[in-house]
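3.2 Worked example (two chains)
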Amino acid sequence: LYGDSKYITVAVTTGAITADACWVWIRRRGNPSDLTLELCSNSAGNPSTVLKTVTVSTSTITDVLSVFYKFDWTGTQALSAATTYHIKMYGGSISDENSHWDIGVDTGTSLSNTSSDGSSWTAATFSTQIRIVDADIARRWMVYNGLTNFHAVSKRDSGNSDFYLIN
């Protein structure tokens, strides 16, 4: 995240979920300034209003090897089904060839956009690899072996909609 690619965004569409965090492969190079991830609304195919934000620093990510990091924003964010949102990431003012953040991407697809200033976006030749996760559900699982199948039943602490699985 430096130069013409100081900002990266990827458009995402989910089902109706209560988003709690976003996981991203990141790697620290040198001693860059803070790394920020924002969950944004969509405006004409580009990120718009910031809905959630998380910032990490080199004191948070101390290892220079890549890590699958959980950007856990405060609270949760309701995401509507079939609505486009954006995950936008950018480094701070100290971002150059020797000190920057690397973000895990898929070079086989091209769903991301890059920017040098966070306002004018250009199509990238890769897709940022992210995983948005739903809020945790407080529940207990009971598992047992039936005559021919393995069964799992969940009991939610709230008493709402339990879940039953058969393998």
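3.2.1 Second chain
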Amino acid sequence: IGGNGLISVAIEQETASSVVDSEGNPVTDQIKNTGTIENNGGTVILDADSASGIFRQAINLEGYVTANRVESKDGVIRIVADQDVRVNATVRATNIEVGDPANKVPENVEIAGGSLEAEKNITILAKNNINISGTAIVP
């Protein structure tokens, strides 16, 4: 945890063409959440710089991510990657942003059976394809 309160993970050595876990199974997602990330009234940023060809998806959300409005503070969830992003999770916030035109835009974005629920805005950017088989709700 940095002095700014953010959690960062970096692999600073060159890796082989594939990454494996402690049991020798391939790790196919650079960032994968199957649990709960909650920061109501704050900002959740999932940001991945992925070397091409190592991971199948830069970000794979399968759990629950929330950053709802608390009192007068908006909650923001920002999902930023330069490779593919897959969301099969419940993502709930005042504002949801997938991709950042000033920083990084994913190659492809798939909303696969999960739901994006925003109080104000949902913005999804991709260089190639956006596939939505889940739900995106803005009241």
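3.3 Remarks
The mean pLDDT is 83.
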